[in-house]
Q: What sequence folds into this?
């Protein structure tokens, strides 16, 4: 070292303190903050890449399922695979790093989805727009085997019903809540909200007296089992160009794998109870930022809303329901054909069964069309969700590149500071050795000269 105490050279001492402080800061960024940020982003990238691959598989199965040549067993296999893929996609949303969930914004201690069945009540408010209203088709006038014994004449053929709907993010809703559902919309920005809650009519999917998918022009059918609002024609015309539509509804039970509402919507947990909790969805992104350099912060997280949507799961559920409807029709046709083999049937019963078989064949054809629609929706949604994940991956990748550039720059700075510290505090060994050698030569020469000048020794004096 050049100095042992600050008083020997105050300038070197002050410079050493500054350089040590700067080096400590650089090491904090380079050796701790950046590796921690990279680990968080690596976990996120792995999850998103997995989801992208799963969505590709879902798209492939939906394309296969849209084929009209599949056997019932083939469709059943496709549906089972879709169910498994859906489950795995949402479980990727629970990815965590060091005990913190990476897709839940500031709520890093809360998972993105329920890990088991929960009997919790939420009052959820969804926001959508008129351009998100969907067109759909359903079969009306289906027959059951018991209709034969109930005296049905089978004169009316099943038919396709076309409708417009708002598909909510959840199914199996609480229709007994008061009010069951509310709907307000704003036509254009700055307009006063219009309340259509009075037009909502709760109706069951199994209602035999009223077709859930044929509301009156000024009515909205709220189907709690499937989580749908079926719009009457006049209602649809008023909503189709709306800038904002707010829908509130209640859900009292969540199954394993359901996305938690508080990460996506404004909602109230346990409304009206002492333990009521209100969640308000922030208008801006919940960014978790790491300081990776002097006055430089980098966002490391990706929110679940950017990569995991309810829509894919809802479409897969609809595919499952549509396939089950087709299978049910095929079973009814098989049962009628089996009964027609009975030689003891009366002429009237045989004619009635043949008429029933004709109507069931029509029903089967129509339900297959609805099933094809469901698979087509699955294809579209899987494409859209892949685009969503691609966007999230691209955003993550650009931030990762910035982080690597910062890491390289800090690595270079770390080396520079270490070199400056060395030159400030430590002596130059080569120069010191040369000076030492020169001093040693001078010293020895001095001793030799002195010895030549004084020839007498101590013994000479003692004599």
A:
């Amino acid at each position: 070292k050049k100095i042992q105490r600050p008083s020997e050279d105050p300038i070197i001492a002050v410079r050493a303190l500054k350089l040590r402080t700067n080096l400590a800061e650089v090491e904090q960024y380079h050796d701790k903050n950046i590796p921690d940020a990279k680990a968080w982003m690596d976990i996120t990238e792995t999850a998103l890449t997995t989801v992208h691959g799963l969505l590709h598989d879902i798209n492939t199965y939906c394309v296969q399922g849209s084929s009209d040549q599949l056997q019932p067993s083939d469709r059943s296999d496709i549906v089972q695979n879709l169910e498994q893929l859906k489950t795995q996609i949402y479980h990727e949303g629970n990815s965590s790093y060091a005990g913190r969930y990476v897709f839940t914004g500031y709520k890093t201690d809360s998972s993105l989805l329920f890990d088991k069945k929960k009997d919790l009540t939420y009052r959820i408010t969804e926001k959508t727009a008129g351009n998100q209203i969907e067109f759909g088709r359903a079969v009306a006038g289906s027959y059951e085997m018991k209709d034969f014994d109930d005296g049905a004449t089978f004169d009316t053929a099943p038919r396709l019903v076309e409708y417009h709907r708002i598909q909510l993010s959840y199914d199996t809703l609480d229709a007994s809540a008061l009010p069951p559902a509310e709907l307000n919309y704003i036509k254009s920005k700055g307009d006063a909200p219009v309340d259509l809650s009075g037009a909502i009519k709760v109706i069951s999917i199994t209602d035999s007296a009223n077709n859930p998918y044929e509301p009156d022009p000024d009515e909205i059918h709220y189907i709690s089992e499937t989580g749908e609002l079926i719009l009457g024609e006049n209602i649809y015309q008023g909503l189709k160009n709306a800038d904002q539509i707010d829908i509130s509804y209640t859900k009292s039970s969540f199954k394993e794998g359901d996305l938690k509402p508080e990460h996506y919507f404004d909602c109230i947990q346990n409304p009206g109870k002492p333990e009521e909790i209100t969640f308000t969805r922030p208008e801006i992104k919940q960014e978790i930022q790491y300081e990776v350099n002097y006055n430089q912060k980098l966002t490391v997280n990706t929110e679940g809303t950017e990569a995991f949507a309810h829509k894919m799961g809802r479409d897969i559920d609809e595919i499952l329901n549509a396939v089950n409807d087709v299978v049910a029709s095929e079973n009814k046709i098989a049962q009628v054909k089996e009964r027609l083999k009975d030689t003891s049937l009366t002429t009237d019963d045989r004619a009635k069964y043949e008429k029933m078989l004709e109507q069931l064949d029509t029903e089967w054809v129509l339900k297959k069309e609805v099933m094809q629609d469901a698979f087509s929706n699955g294809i579209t949604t899987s494409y859209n969700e892949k685009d969503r994940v691609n966007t999230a991956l691209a955003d993550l990748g650009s931030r990762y590149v910035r982080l690597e550039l910062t890491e390289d720059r800090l690595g270079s700075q770390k080396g520079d500071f270490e070199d400056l510290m060395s030159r400030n505090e430590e002596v130059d060994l080569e120069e010191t050795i040369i000076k030492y050698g020169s001093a040693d030569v001078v010293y020895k020469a001095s001793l030799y000269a002195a010895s030549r000048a004084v020839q007498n020794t101590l013994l000479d004096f003692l004599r």
The chain has a mean pLDDT of 90. Residues 107-285 form one domain. Residues 39 and 86 are 26 Å apart (CA to CA).
